[in-house]
Design a protein that fits this description.
Blueprint lengths: L5 E5 L3 E7 L2 E9 L5 H12 L5 E8 L5 E5 L9 H10 L5 E8 L6 H19 L2 E5 L1 E8 L4 H11 L2 E7 L3 E8 L3 H9 L5 E4 L1
Antiparallel strand pairs: 1-7, 2-3, 3-6, 4-5, 4-6, 8-10, 8-11, 9-10
């Protein structure tokens, strides 16, 4: 089996709404890069919705999808954060934060009702978002002499490698972003070039 070096996330923030027995659930979903973004996003939603009873959320990070956190924010345990997370899981999304803001409508929904409401609101936000596929990339730096330039550039062009930093002083150095499934092939070709050194960042 080929190593799966892609993951799904969303392109831009989006929102969805679900209503049940007077309660209103507004779901917001954001693309995020790290856990440090959580606090600011939740704080801004709390100032946007000061009268809301709950701000429940779930977050999923990292291309291997291993990092996640959930928060029920005062709702009965397992009725909010977990259903929000499960919706992200069922769409295989990562590097995302979903927050559901709840306005209480006076009627208790019970555990099944809450689970359904948080799940459905999140689903509405997911439906509104543009899902994109990203590749898991490895960053490496190569150093080589000017005489090797043509050979190096030919490989980079043929393998469609992205250069995001370059320096052509006395020696040449390039920072490359290589898709994980291509790494062995590309580095194998580059390492055959005399005098070239390669180091992973």
């Amino acid at each position: 089996m080929l190593f799966d070096d892609t993951y799904k996330t969303i392109k831009a923030p989006s929102e969805g709404v679900f209503k049940d027995k007077g309660s209103k659930f507004i779901a917001y979903i954001y693309p995020i890069k790290s856990e440090t973004e959580l606090k600011d996003i939740i704080a801004s939603l709390k100032s946007l919705h000061p009268k809301a009873r709950h701000h429940c959320w779930a977050m999923r990070l990292s291309p291997d999808r291993t990092v996640f956190r959930i928060n029920d924010d005062g709702e009965p345990s397992g009725t909010a954060g977990r259903p929000i997370l499960n919706t992200l899981l069922s769409h295989d999304l990562t590097d995302v934060l979903a927050v559901v803001v709840r306005y209480f409508g006076g009627t208790l929904l019970g555990v099944p009702g809450l689970i359904n409401a948080y799940k459905t609101a999140t689903l509405e936000a997911v439906k509104e978002s543009e899902i994109i596929v990203k590749t898991i990339n490895v960053i490496c730096r190569i150093n080589f002499g000017h005489p090797q330039m043509n050979e190096v550039m030919r490989i980079i062009k043929e393998e469609d490698i992205r250069i995001f930093n370059q320096n052509f002083d006395l020696n040449c150095s390039l920072d490359l972003e290589i898709r994980q499934s291509q790494v062995n092939k590309v580095t194998g070709r580059l390492e055959k070039i005399e005098g070239l050194t390669l180091k992973y960042q």
